[in-house]
Design a protein that fits this description.
Keywords: Membrane, Transferase, Transmembrane, Transmembrane helix. This protein is α/β, with parallel strands linked by helices. It folds into three domains: about 140 residues, no CATH class; about 100 residues, Rossmann fold (3-Layer(aba) Sandwich), CATH 3.40.50; about 200 residues, no CATH class. About 50% of the residues lie in helices and about 10% in strands. The protein is built from 16 helices and eleven strands. The strands form four sheets. Strands 3-2-1-4-5 form a five-stranded parallel beta sheet, sandwiched between helices. The chain has a two-stranded antiparallel sheet with strand order 6-7. Strands 8-9 form a two-stranded antiparallel ribbon. α2 packs across α3 and α3 runs antiparallel to α4. The longest helix has about 50 residues.
Length: about 500
């Protein structure tokens, strides 16, 4: 495998552009890391200062209880604790360019550094027989960790907005087979918050690049044996290698050697999709990095822990929203003829039907004309949605925009027929058209919200909706449920993608 350079003049211009791109990336990364330093200092000092104020009433605190003849006040302990905490945050790489702004590794390192601080304090207390005030530590450490996480989340939100505006991106060259390269380039383009901007692709010679030309995608800059040349011409700052039969371990190692002197990162995708991080374990076997993929979590998604959470959450929501439920019911009854609630048969876990409850948002004859609408609009019976649906009432349109029509489904949750989070509930005609893959949706209870609801709602295609539902079924965790509920609140408040 060889990497050929372009002619001298072109090489000099491309190298200058690439160096400028690296300088810009390093500049915004350094500036962003400095902002994180300020936020971390404020969070840590605020936590330890608040702990001292709450526990001891201010700076006039009693001295530290230890056997040495030197008197040390808790103000000194507070400053030492803050300095040690900040040092551990730096030592654990919590502000490294590879982890800031995306993924869960940044938060894992925050938690790891804080737990390490607990360990250091415990060892010091044991070795020097120091009696730290437990109330002081019980306030400082949890409060500081929460403040650190909140600060990182705030900056992450700001970074995503900057990236949506076309700033703070890393230029990436995608390498792989046409199918894999197209899928990876599309994933980067569809998620600007990831921070990668595709500047070109390299596909094996003779494999064809028609799909990129047809879909208006990135330019094909060469084959997978002229990557260095493509990097220089595109000013790429990273190279992402997707699945390809043409690049083996030796070629990838040599590519890393070639890219290192010019400061370009190498990213190798394992070729698996929709696998949650909790199911992945990185291991080195015989000198080769490997990913162990844990089995799908179907059983965990049916656990009693999830059922208990669903019951408690649904009961709390119904109690708190009771006045709104009465107001919505009054508006539905006063503005259109028919019952307040709409009962529709849906297919639940293991294919068992149940009656799903919603506030009625359509006219009474809505179900009788659905087949005509599907034929008229060319919709898919598996996932039929149409904007400006003539069956929807004016009040129903408002309820649907903010998903208020679905609030009564919390009664289905109390009855054990639905979950707060799960795949989209389906009608019989949709289930009848399922293939073997899509029937996996029926392994768990349907939910009021889920991955597809927070990823585009009605604007998603059938394929994307099915993919997201199946991803949820296979990757369930309690943390995922809580995260999806939190994201749902934001999506519903904005009214995005609902009709």
């Amino acid at each position: 495998m060889s990497f050929e350079l372009t002619s001298g003049g072109e090489v000099e211009v491309a190298s200058a552009v690439q160096a400028l791109g690296r300088t810009r990336r390093e500049s915004w990364q350094a500036a962003f890391a400095q902002r994180l330093v300020v936020t971390d200092v404020v969070a840590v000092l605020g936590a330890v200062g608040a702990a001292q104020a709450i526990r001891f009433g201010g700076p006039a605190a009693p001295p530290l209880a230890w056997p040495l003849p030197y008197e040390v006040g808790y103000s000194v302990v507070t400053l030492a604790l803050a300095a040690g905490w900040l040092a551990l945050l730096h030592g654990h790489g919590t502000r490294a360019p590879q982890v800031i702004g995306t993924g869960s590794e940044e938060f894992r390192r925050l938690v790891s550094a804080t737990l390490r601080l607990f360990g250091v304090l415990a060892i010091l207390a044991l070795l020097f027989r120091i009696d730290f005030a437990r109330g002081y530590l019980a306030i400082a450490l949890p409060t500081g960790l929460l403040a650190l996480i909140a600060g990182r989340l705030a900056w992450r939100g700001r970074l995503r907005r900057w990236r949506a505006e076309g700033r703070c991106h890393t230029a990436v060259l995608v390498v792989g087979s046409p199918e894999a390269a197209h899928a990876m380039a599309t994933a980067f383009t569809d998620d600007p918050g990831s921070g990668y901007r595709v500047v070109g692709v390299c596909v094996p010679a003779g494999s064809g690049d028609g799909r990129f030309e047809r879909h208006g995608g990135p330019s094909v800059l060469g084959d997978d044996r002229s990557v260095l040349d493509a990097v220089r011409r595109s000013a790429a700052e990273s190279v992402a290698v997707a699945a390809t039969d043409h690049l083996g371990p030796a070629e990838l190692r040599r590519m890393a050697w070639e890219l290192d002197p010019i400061g370009v990162d190498l990213i190798v995708a394992p070729g698996v999709v929709d696998i949650a991080g909790v199911r992945l374990t990185h291991r080195l076997v015989a000198g080769m990095p490997m990913l162990h993929i844990d089995r799908p979590r179907y059983g965990r998604a049916k656990s009693s822990r999830k059922a208990l959470f669903d019951f408690c959450f649904a009961a709390a929501v119904l109690v708190l929203s009771a006045p709104f439920l009465v107001a919505i019911a009054t508006a539905v009854k006063a503005t259109s003829a028919g019952p307040v609630f709409y009962l529709s048969e849906r297919i639940g876990r293991d294919g068992v039907p149940f009656r799903m409850i919603k506030f009625r948002s359509m006219h009474l004859d809505a179900d009788t004309v659905v087949d005509d609408l599907i034929e008229q609009h060319g919709g898919n019976p598996v996932f039929f949605k149409v904007k400006d649906d003539p069956r929807v009432t004016p009040v129903g349109r408002f309820l649907r925009k903010y998903s208020l029509d679905e609030l009564p489904q919390f009664f289905n949750v109390l009855r054990g027929e639905m979950s707060v989070v799960g795949p989209r509930p389906q009608v019989q005609r949709e289930v009848d058209s399922y293939d073997g893959e899509m029937r996996r949706r029926l392994l768990v209870k349907p939910g009021l919200t889920g991955l597809w609801q927070v990823s585009g709602r009605s604007d998603l295609s059938l394929e994307d909706s099915v993919r997201l539902d199946l991803s949820y079924v296979e990757n369930w965790s309690m943390v995922l449920d809580v995260a999806l509920i939190a994201r749902t609140i934001g999506v519903v408040t904005r009214g995005d993608g609902a009709y």
